[in-house]
Amino acid sequence: MKVIVTASYDETCRVIAEMIAGLVNEKPDCKLGLATGGTPVPIYKKLIEMNKAGKVDFSKVRTVNLDEYCGIPGTHDQSYRYFMNTNLFDHINIDKANTFVANGMGDFEANARELEEKVREGGVADLQLLGIGNNGHIAFNEASDHLISVAHIEHLTESTIDANARFFEKREDVPTMAITMGMGDIMAAKKVVLAATGLAKVPAIKGLIMDDVITTQNPSTMLKMHSDAVIVIDKELAGAVGYQA
């Protein structure tokens, strides 16, 4: 596991955007695992700028997203399909037929099986982008006494619902279940890149980079077992967890 410390979160996002663009330029038909939430938005903005400047071409790229809420359609402004379209896909030259976000409506179990198929279809992701929850959750794999390897339905913890409530009009509007890739799916990616910022992430990041313990109570610690995991944090967060580059 490699840790990169940057001067600021803006620099973190630039470093990761350049990693992704470099991969796409090297392998134009690569497969990307993508994430949602507040963390990757500036990364996607930088990729849009690079695409518009002719520095990266997404026309042959395939993508699969980590997760989707259960119970809201892709047209809902808080669905992850809507998020991906408005924050990235609508602004770059990607074929949306080559992008996959799980369906949050209908038969959730069948939708989870479809996500699992997409994770493996045509080979695993060349790069999986990740954020991290305050409790160390990766995608919607919540801290628990066990983790699930494959795509599945996850009941969200109160802390996750609280963290996501800022995106909804009322807390009670936040979905309580989600379809998510399993930890085995995430670990199968050839390269994993995790971005984090903010003091709320201190406990999770401390567990990830400051000791050798692997625990399902902090799902991110599973990344210690990955052969090519890169953790990118800014100096404020690094200082708060006591990490020295």
Automatic annotation (TrEMBL):
Q: Which GO terms of type biological process are on file? A: carbohydrate metabolic process; glucosamine catabolic process; N-acetylglucosamine catabolic process; N-acetylneuraminate catabolic process
Q: Which UniProt keywords apply?
A: Carbohydrate metabolism, Hydrolase
Named from the GO MF annotations, one term is:
identical protein binding
Supply the InterPro entries for this chain.
Glc/Gal-6P_isomerase, Glucosamine6P_isomerase, NagB/RpiA_transferase-like
Source species: Candidatus Ruthenibacterium merdavium
User: A cellular component term (GO) from this record?
Assistant: cytoplasm
E.C. no: 3.5.99.6
Q: Write down a Pfam family by its short name.
A: Glucosamine_iso
Q: Look up the domain of life of the source.
A: Bacteria
Specify the protein name: Glucosamine-6-phosphate deaminase
Which residues does the UniProt record annotate as the domain Glucosamine/galactosamine-6-phosphate isomerase? Answer: 9-228
